[in-house]
Design brief:
Elements lengths: L7 H11 L4 H67 L1 H8 L10 H16 L3 E8 L4 E3 L4 E3 L9 H6 L6 E6 L6 E10 L5 E10 H8 L6 E6 L4 E4 L19 E7 L5 E8 L4 H45 L16 H40 L3 H19 L4 H17 L5 E3 H19 L3 E6 L8 E3 L3 H13 L6 E10 L2 E8 L6 H13 L10 H12 L4 E7 L3 E9 L5
Parallel strand pairs: 12-14
Antiparallel strand pairs: 1-2, 1-6, 2-3, 4-5, 5-6, 7-8, 7-10, 9-10, 11-13, 14-15, 15-17, 16-17
Helix pairs in contact: 2-7, 3-4, 7-8, 9-10, 10-11
């Protein structure tokens, strides 16, 4: 088929014709909706996944940062513990703890030696605020800068904890120095000669601010050290300088919480990172999602248009065919691939041409009917006038010849034959009656040709009552005489016989005339199969064939075989049924 392309003008015309009811528009909306929904779901899943990955990455970074801070803090605290242990084992410090100092003079030799020792340690470690050595025996306390009775010392916020828990192991507490400033992490190391012989303690004070500068990187996060009792030992955020820590204190919607247990101490490190610190990642992600959604929308529209136009082409081809069926021509391309659309188009075209053909045939039948009616009307113009005229001629001949003769017999038979032909009461008669009627015509011929014509009849008794179209044998015999035997110029034989073959009645008229050329015979047979129009002025084989098909349908068939110089055979195959 010459396939019309569905171009812009055609699509525009379709949209004008059908508007939003067009299959093209509905397909476009459906495909766009599906593509947009699918791509949107994918983008939402990807966005959610990327958001989760970003959250996990932030948590991982925060956790790694907290672990590094914890390692530095543990290192510092280990150094603090090491300082206290070394001092508790130092001989000079032990002499101070064992000395019996009766006055508060700072010039005792033991006091001076202890202060010198403490100053050495305090100068080495920058994060150490101060170191105290307290003797419970003499109630004497010495620092790197001062020594005297503990009652005269101004920083005693550690003392109640020390005095109430003298039998407990070493520990750390958080406190303000002298109830003011700075905030300190104080490590209290009790010193004993034995389990029940308490000598005093080593108190190492770590400055929180210096510790933060040393161990915590500059960051917006909050770092805390929380002991097993949830006491806050250290924090970089003044808002969390409380005695106890609760996880509920942190707003998880605004803060990212991380906790890491210390590897060497009985506390944990807590990190609080403001979520807004990572909001720029989320904003970038949202911006990326918006850009991608815009790109996806554009791609969805383009893809929807392309798919809709492509899928609409078969529908457009069918619509074009329905609008202009005459433009359809079968494809003659080699390798033509038949699909559903082509099947529909071919069936529509076939039905169109079949309808046209049927309409043309119907018109031809109507024309033939009108012609037949006109012929019948013309034939019925005073038929008694013809009979009476022939009868008058016959009696005139008898009168002139003074008796019955061949001419009067011919006129009599012709009159009878004419009566039978013009009688339209029954168009289907028995073959017995048709043979009887045809013999009238044969008798006329034999009066004319005498010994030059012989007609042989072979009609078995079993087919005598079979139905046949009236006046179907006479035209065939006439055709055999004038086109076969007469040109031969010698005696001719015509054989007429009938037989039952399955559900068919076969009637054969065979002559030994001059015959026909093969090409002429082929054209005649093709004409008998395909042509149903009456040939004006011709009542031969074609006329009989046309009347057979009109009265008996396509089951009635005629076939002609002929051989040049040997004769012609006309065979009629009719539906086998008997006349009531």
């Amino acid at each position: 088929m010459k396939k019309k392309k569905i171009g812009k003008s055609t699509i525009w015309q379709m949209l004008q014709d059908y508007r939003f009811n067009s299959v093209l528009v509905r397909n476009f909306v459906m495909i766009l909706g599906i593509l947009f929904a699918v791509f949107s779901m994918i983008m939402l899943v990807v966005s959610k996944r990327m958001d989760t990955l970003t959250e996990q990455e932030v948590q991982t970074v925060s956790e790694n940062s907290l672990k590094q801070t914890a390692q530095r803090m543990d290192t510092v605290m280990n150094e603090v513990i090491q300082i206290s242990v070394q001092l508790s084992l130092d001989d000079d410090i032990m002499n101070f703890l064992l000395a019996d100092l009766e006055d508060s003079s700072v010039n005792h030799e033991e006091t001076l030696v202890a202060r010198t020792k403490l100053k050495q340690y305090a100068d080495i470690f920058s994060y150490v605020d101060s170191i105290y050595v307290y003797s419970s025996r003499s109630r004497y306390l010495v620092t790197e800068e001062w020594g005297g009775n503990i009652g005269e010392f101004d920083d005693l916020t550690w003392y109640s904890n020390f005095n109430e828990r003298i039998y407990e192991p070493a520990r750390m507490i958080s406190r303000p120095k002298a109830n003011k400033y700075p905030y300190l992490i104080t490590y209290i190391q009790p010193v004993r000669l034995s389990q029940m012989h308490f000598l005093g303690g080593i108190i190492v004070n770590v400055d929180v601010e210096r510790l933060g500068e040393f161990a915590v990187a500059e960051t917006d996060e909050t770092i805390m050290i929380v002991d097993r009792r949830n006491h806050i030992l250290f924090t970089t955020n003044k808002n969390y300088k409380k005695e106890k820590w609760k996880e509920t204190d942190a707003d998880v919607n605004k803060m990212l919480l991380q906790e890491v247990e210390s590897e060497t101490h009985d506390w944990k490190y807590v990190s609080l990172v403001p979520r807004e610190k990572y909001q720029h990642y989320r904003r970038e992600l949202k911006r990326f999602v918006v850009y991608m959604m815009g790109l996806i929308s554009l791609c969805s529209i383009i893809a929807s248009v392309a798919i809709s136009v492509y899928s609409y082409q078969p529908v457009g081809s069918i619509v074009n065919l329905l609008k202009d069926p005459q433009a359809y021509q079968p494809s003659k391309k080699n390798g033509f691939r038949k699909d559903e659309t082509q099947t529909i188009i071919q069936n529509i075209a076939y039905n169109f041409y079949s309808n046209n053909k049927m309409q043309k045939e119907l018109q031809d039948y109507l024309t033939m009917t009108n012609q037949a009616q006109l012929t019948a009307l013309q034939a019925q113009i005073s038929p008694h006038f013809l009979y009476n005229t022939l009868e008058n001629i016959r009696w005139k001949v008898i009168e002139l010849c003074r008796g019955d003769n061949e001419a009067s017999q011919m006129i009599l038979k012709l009159s009878e034959l004419l009566r039978i032909s013009l009688d339209d009461a029954d168009q289907i008669i028995s073959i017995e009656q048709e043979v009887r009627n045809t013999r009238l015509y044969v008798d006329i011929l034999q009066l004319r040709y005498e010994s030059k014509l012989e007609v042989q009849w072979n009609i078995p008794e079993e087919v005598q009552k079979c139905a046949i179209v009236k006046v179907s044998l006479q035209p065939l015999i006439e055709n055999a005489v004038y086109h076969g035997i007469k040109p031969k110029r010698e005696k001719g034989i015509i054989q007429v016989y009938a037989e039952k073959d399955s559900e068919k009645l076969k009637v054969t008229i065979r002559d030994d005339g001059i015959g026909m050329d093969p090409e002429e015979c082929r054209i005649l047979n093709e004409d008998l199969r395909n042509n149903f129009q009456f040939k004006k002025g011709h009542i031969g084989v074609r006329n009989v064939n046309q009347r057979l098909k009109l009265l008996l349908g396509d089951q009635a068939q005629m076939n002609v075989t002929s051989e040049k110089g040997k004769g012609t055979c006309v065979q009629m195959a009719l539906p086998y049924r008997e006349v009531e």
